[in-house]
Write a structure and sequence with these properties.
The protein has helices at 21-43, 58-79, 138-147, 189-194, 230-234, and strands spanning 110-112, 118-120, 127-131, 153-158, 180-184, 205-210, 216-223. With 237 residues, it is of the alpha/beta class. The strands form two sheets. A five-stranded mixed β-sheet has the order 5-4-3-6-7, covered by helices on one side.
């Protein structure tokens, strides 16, 4: 046959087409193999045989589908009945004008002695501090001084100037010399800093049992008898 490439050699056309059956089967087998290979290349996004510049969109679409599925699964898990998150408690509103929490230590302040000189309250610790404004508490003060251990000071505090000290204060036999200091707090700073409120009248006192470190170990806001704090007073040091 004319016009054929010389490298093809001699081309023989058989008279019976059935003689090409074997070659036809081999060609069809190669075509099927190539078709399967092209199908896989399309799935993985590789260029298809005969189309070197063409790529498949199946891989990006598959990634997007997985991302959407994961998002939907998360939404279902969050909104599933019985698994709703507990609401956070509302923040506590703090008012600028609200008073601070009461302290558990006695403040470092000076009170006024009977002669008008300042006296450091912390310098008298440990002490049973008795706020006796408007209180007829002579018996309670005497019982407290008698029950206090040696080294524990009994301090009475009033807003007005304290009366001169008595010659003696009753105390249990053998307990040593009583130690009672009568001091004044004209501005009410001690009661205000501890937020003790207003004291009633009569035979009622506010008693603070303060350790040597300044810690208030017990507060009796309406003390009338020593029995209300005798046990705590015995352990004060």
């Amino acid at each position: 046959m004319p016009d054929l490439p010389p490298e093809w050699g001699t081309v023989v056309i058989p008279d019976d087409i059935s003689e090409l059956a074997e070659e036809s089967a081999a060609v069809r087998k190669d075509l099927r193999r190539q078709s399967r290979r092209d199908t896989w290349r399309r799935w993985v996004g590789r260029p298809v045989h005969g189309h070197p510049g063409r790529s498949s969109l199946r891989i990006p679409l598959l990634i997007m589908a997985v991302a959407v599925l994961a998002t939907l699964t998360s939404l279902v898990a969050v909104t599933w009945p019985g698994r709703q998150p507990q609401p956070l408690p509302p923040p506590v509103a703090r008012q600028s004008g609200s008073p601070p929490a009461p302290t558990r230590t006695v403040p470092a302040l000076d009170l006024i002695d009977v002669d008008g000189s300042p006296v450091s309250l912390r310098g008298l610790l440990p002490a049973a501090v008795m706020l006796t404004d408007g209180c007829e508490c002579a018996t309670l003060v005497a019982d407290t001084a008698a029950a206090a251990k040696p080294g524990v000071t009994v301090v009475t505090v009033t807003r007005s100037s304290p009366p001169p000290p008595r010659a003696s204060t009753p105390r249990a036999p053998g307990a040593g010399t009583p130690s009672v200091r009568r001091l004044a707090d004209p501005t009410g700073e001690l009661r205000g800093s501890l937020q003790l409120g207003t004291q009633g009248t009569g035979q009622v006192a506010t008693v603070l049992l303060v350790a040597r470190t300044g810690e208030i170990i017990s507060t009796i806001p309406a003390a009338q008898t020593i029995d209300q704090f005798r046990r705590e007073l015995a352990t004060l040091s």
